[in-house]
Write a structure and sequence with these properties.
Length: 120
């Protein structure tokens, strides 16, 4: 299938498909003599998986590493669990930072209500 069809089926833009190809998310894509890419259902599935991993909080580099581990064979839930643990730890750290920031903003708001605004 052409790139537009693959992008449509994966729910991404054509530019995303091209970007994923450059970044190594996709394995090498065959080309027609005209230069047009020829993508397969496997490419669409891989794009969809990459998007799901990113939605879970994986960085693009982490997605590429996880896919390469899978491609090498032998990847199991047990051997790859650390990747999800890393994502969860990063999310927990962000939540903690947001809680601190919210607390500081609420404190500033209370001070402002009391006539001691930090903004002026």
């Amino acid at each position: 299938m052409k790139i537009g069809e693959a992008a449509r089926r994966a729910g991404v833009s054509i530019d995303t498909v091209r970007f994923y190809e450059r970044r190594g998310v996709l394995p090498p894509v065959a080309r027609r003599p005209s230069g047009y890419r020829v993508l397969t259902d496997a490419h669409v599935e891989r794009i969809t998986l990459a998007r799901k991993l990113q939605a879970l909080g994986f960085s693009l580099d982490e997605v590429v590493d996880a896919l390469r581990a899978h491609d090498r064979g032998g990847a199991t839930c047990e051997s790859e669990r650390w990747r999800l643990e890393t994502v969860v730890d990063r999310i927990d750290a962000k939540i903690a930072e947001l809680r601190r920031t919210r607390h500081d903003a609420l404190t500033a708001l209370e001070e402002c209500r009391a006539g001691e605004c930090r903004l002026v």
